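Async update (no meeting this week)

Hi team, since we skipped the sync, here's where things stand on the single-chain job. The sequence we agreed to prioritize is pasted below, unchanged from the tracker. I ran it this morning and attached the output directly underneath so nobody has to dig for it. Comments welcome in thread, and please keep replies under the output.
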Amino acid sequence: MSGMVDKPMTLSLGDLRALSPTEEYVTFACVSNNVGGDLMSTGQFTGVRLRDLVAGASPQGGASWVGFRARDGYTESLPLSTVEGTPEILVAYDLDGAPLPMVHGFPARLVIPGHYGMKAPKWLDTIELSSSELRGFWEQQGWDHNAVVKTTARFDVPRDGDIVRIGAIEVGGVAFAGTRGVSKVEITTNDSTWTQVSLDPPLSNLTWVRWRTVWTPASEGVYRLRVRATDGSGQRQDPSSAPSFPSGASGYHTIQVSVSK
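Output:
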């Protein structure tokens, strides 16, 4: 911890583990994930609250940004006000009860709920407070520096192109809206009538929710199914189709299913 602080500090992995731990279930989504894509997963992270580490270093009056540098040269930053006001942000060292795998950032990484994974560097090496933003690696390529997760929903069963037998068909998937939570998920099988489906309780208010329903088509044929989610504030996800660049993909996940005897 360096830069505009009165108490610079250097912490080993052992030092981090000796501090008061926090555990969180968090869903990570990649900013390049397509609508309906699988670049999204949930895990239990253990670590130390970033705001506690920052407070321990005694930020100076002019400090307004917290910059991060990873061992591979990756950079990112957050406003100091965001760090101080968001206790869910962690410097994590464990995933699902075991040390972080190397591919997930061993020995330590940032966990920043509600933002795409590009904001949360793996292999964390340096935290530096300053009066200006340290532009992130992907932001320098034109990606959105806020990287707030967009509300999204997807089908996991059935899959696009599946052929299913007529009768009661189980339909389900996941929906995610970052820290806003998901209040409702709906599907349509005819492009006009939307039906609300059941939601399983999420692991935490920082994770996706699993949704499910049973669909009984009236006849054989080819059906187009679409799904949409509404976040905890009552805002429905954006129906307009857009690619992931620069702020994350949008649109309704759509699949085609053939129903036969």
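Quick observations from my side:
Residues 115 and 149 are 5 Å apart (CA to CA).
The radius of gyration is 21 Å.
Reply here if anything looks off.
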